């Protein structure tokens, strides 16, 4: 178990704990695991997860972005000393915040509720891959109007699949979410992560209810779209 805090400048406004294997959603929405009630924070702003004792942060296509050391990120493994910003809020890893001043709702600055839109940060950066695994896999469309027809995973640590125009693989159709699912690279391979949607993403015909490691030949089904996870020969 590790302890984290959401801070505004030098004030701790929320502390929380996360266990190995957990994935917590940080955002403004009522269903967020760690809620920040501020309009500069998206309803589902970012996700923090712990895998093999290491923290990973994923931006969930937030309006104002998630920055690590000043760089806008999609998905990254966090390292000790990293400066993480979600809008004007800091995400801090630590074991003792007892000496910090808690910021109650009544003490929050007036501009905390402003609908501030932050200027874009530096170009998005991705973590470096530690193996050549990313160069040997691809996603191939088998059925449906999803595009592009083939997507190489070379140099990619995160892939967004959904109806949104800025998806890495766009899957048009009724009831398909803008962010239907993500595929993230971890140390031991690629994992598919389900997102909230009116329809279920399926793997080999089975509804996806939690993060699942992908294996060559796995079929991702999203209504009429079928996408195969392939290892290149």
Explain how this protein is built.
The structure is a single chain. The chain has two domains: 2-102, Tumour Suppressor Smad4 (Sandwich); 137-231, Sandwich (Tumour Suppressor Smad4), CATH 2.60.200.20. The chain is 0% helix and 44% strand. The protein has no helices and 24 strands. The strands form four sheets. It has an eight-stranded mixed sheet with strand order 12-2-1-11-10-7-8-13, with no helix packed on it. The protein is globular and about 50 Å long. The protein starts with a strand and ends with a strand. Mean pLDDT is 82; it is low at 98-134.
In a few lines, what is going on in this structure?
This protein is an all-beta fold.
What is the percentage of strand-forming residues?
Answer: 35-45%
Kindly report the CATH topology of the largest domain: Tumour Suppressor Smad4
Alpha carbon gyration radius:
18 Å
N- to C-terminal distance: 40 Å
The CATH C-level name of the largest domain is Mainly Beta
Q: Helix proportion of residues, in percent?
A: under 10%
Sum up the overall morphology in one term.
Answer: globular
If you average the pLDDT, what whole number results? Answer: 82
How many helices? 0
How many DSSP E strands? 24
Give a quick account of the main beta sheet: strands, pairing sense, barrel closure. 8 strands, mixed
């Amino acid at each position: 178990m590790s302890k984290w805090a959401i801070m505004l400048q030098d004030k701790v406004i929320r502390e929380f704990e996360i266990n190995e294997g957990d994935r917590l959603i940080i955002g403004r929405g009522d269903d967020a695991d760690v809620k920040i009630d501020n309009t500069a924070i998206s309803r589902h702003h970012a996700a923090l997860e712990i895998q093999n004792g290491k923290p990973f942060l994923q931006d969930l296509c937030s309006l104002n972005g998630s920055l690590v050391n000043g760089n806008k990120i999609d998905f990254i493994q966090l390292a000790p000393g990293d400066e993480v910003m979600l809008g004007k809020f800091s995400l801090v890893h630590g074991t003792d915040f007892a000496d910090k001043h808690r910021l109650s709702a009544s003490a929050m600055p007036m501009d905390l509720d402003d609908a501030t839109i932050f200027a874009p940060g530096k170009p998005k950066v991705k973590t470096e891959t530690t193996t050549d695994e990313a160069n040997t896999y691809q996603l191939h469309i088998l059925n449906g109007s999803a595009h592009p027809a083939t997507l190489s995973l070379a140099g990619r640590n995160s892939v967004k699949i959904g109806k949104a125009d800025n998806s890495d693989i766009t899957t048009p159709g009724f009831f398909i979410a803008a962010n239907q699912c993500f595929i993230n690279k971890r140390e031991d391979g690629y994992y598919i992560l389900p997102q909230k949607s009116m329809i279920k993403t399926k793997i080999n015909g089975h509804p996806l209810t939690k993060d699942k490691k992908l294996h060559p030949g796995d079929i991702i089904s999203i209504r009429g779209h079928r996408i195969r996870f392939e290892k290149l020969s």
